[in-house]
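Example 3.
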Amino acid sequence: MLKIDNLHATAGEKEILKGISLTVNAGEVHAIMGPNGSGKSTLAQVIAGHPGFEVTGGSITYAGQDLLDLAPEERAQQGVFLAFQYPVEIPGVTNAYFLRSAYNEVRKARGEEEIDPMEFLDLMEKKLKVVDMDPAMLHRSVNTGFSGGEKKRNEILQMAVLEPRLAILDETDSGLDIDALRVVAGGVNALRRPDNATIVVTHYQRLLNYIVPDHVHVLAGGRIVKSGGKELALELEARGYDWVLEAA
Amino acid sequence: MTGTTKYAEAFAALEGAGSAPSWLADLRKAAHAEFSAIGFPTTRNEDWHFTSVTPIAERTFRLPKAPAAAPADLLADAVGDASWPRAVFVNGRFEPSLSSLAGSGDARVMTLAAALKDAPDVLSAHLGRLAAWNAQAFTALNTAFAQDGIVVHVPRGAKVAAPLHIVHAVDAQAAGAMLTPRLLVIVEPLAEFAIVENYLSQKGIEYFTNAVGEAVVGTGGRFHHYKVQRESREAFHVGTMQVTQGRDSLFHSFSYASGAALSRTNIYTKLAGDGAEVRLNGLYLVDGSQHADHQTFVEHIAPGCASRELYKGILDGDAHGVFNGKVFVDPQAQKTDGKQTNHALLLSPAARVDTKPQLEIFADDVKCTHGATVGRLDELALFYLKSRGVGAENARALLTYAFAAEVLETVELDALRDGLERIAFERFTHTEQR
């Protein structure tokens, strides 16, 4: 589904990704771990098309096409979803309107009819249950005045509505207490299907108790320095990152 | 400054026809003399540095004629709630058949003419006492010519739930006219009152609104003044609100300006009693060659008073926005807490904004801050919307609206806030938010 080959990316003058190669197949969950500043979030944002980074080398192929050729909104319409580490507040635009706009854009891209507001509310009723969210949140402005936990739930709600083929969770666990973490992870698991894939970017192993990865990669200095199965995450939790970095 | 005899003939005619009591005739005469002496301000005047009123000064506006019919479609466009008590002015004249002044509880709501008969003492004690007709040309001109307006007297302790809706509607019959609406509000101690003023006109009409309001807010009183200015894009608008506040009082002002070729909104308040609070908020949306100017002046005279200001502007085309926020802190006004914020969003390379905070602080134990930004849409927020599949154009529209919505949220009247949000949303997204 996703094939990243020798990807290099810079922010301004600084090279952050220095040759990343990674293949993600349908049905898989990949965890990207690593110390602060290793480039984990940059990788997530480059896949989604963040304008602050420039790809200077390598390629990303997604569902058989050159992902780097697509604008961020086109990537989203084709099924790429990034759950932000710091979701943006949009005062005055209700969650309901925002979700329906996004949903309709994705439907249009698939050649489907736009959904009407009443039908959409029915759909939302189901989706809200996935993340155990109060329907009143639909009528509040997007992320405005939300707590950290509410913002992260809202990200997963958007994911539930858009049903991406490739979901990337960027530090979705940061700032969550254990109950919120369970809800968020439960939501992600409920959305897993054999034909979609998930990339979990995280500093800590904690989230991976709930979203169990098939593959774990350690990113350091802009490169993947070690890959393994889910047991690698446990080893990192027990021993820290230093031994991997030294071995690399 | 140059003197002008431009309106002398019109004033003489009005004076000859009038039957005003002598104090009012004298006030008008003095105001006219003042205007004739000082003339319209030029950009050499510090208060008008960024706004040239030459287009107003070089025209000679006539006085309005009585309207033949009322523009019903315009009234439907006034943002507010149909159940509010309503005073409708058509082409500057009070229109009883469209108005319904009942419903303001214990507050007395009168036209200027009725107040001259029924409440001459209130009028003579307050009219022209706050508004600086002896220093400001536009205020002098209004004072000389104002024939109609609204007077509100809110007795001690009366808390009036429904706002008074004042609609200033203009149609083609007012082309070339100068309208001089006048407002006087006396909020006695512990009383509360709100006014919503809607300025509307049919498209394509060139005229000049020169409005003046005065308000006295007594000890513990609260006064909310909302002004929505959506006049024709050929119109000129100068509106001044002058307030004085007693101890522990609140004055809350909101200004929405999207109309007129040239508009200037002045909001001046004097915090004369300890612990008084003022909140001044505003939003202007301009494009094409429109010019929108807001000037605020908060005089902290008494100690322990708080002032909060948030103004936002969204500018497209060649539009020009101006914000001048003056704050004066008297040596007596210790523990003053002042905060002024001004943000402008530029949607085109040719749009521009001049922002001038002006703080004069003569007390030492005060907290006064000001912040201003002029910018474009946040790239990260745009990316957030795009990453959800929202196209670039729609993403820009939603964020532009969101920029406006933050200040619209300060409108405490649901019907007004919802109405303004709807107008702003449709303006930027060309669709409805359901």
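The longest strand of chain B covers residues 192-201. Chain B touches chain A at residues 378-392, 394-395, 398-399, 401-402, 404-406, 408-409, 421, 425, 433-434 (CB under 8 Å).
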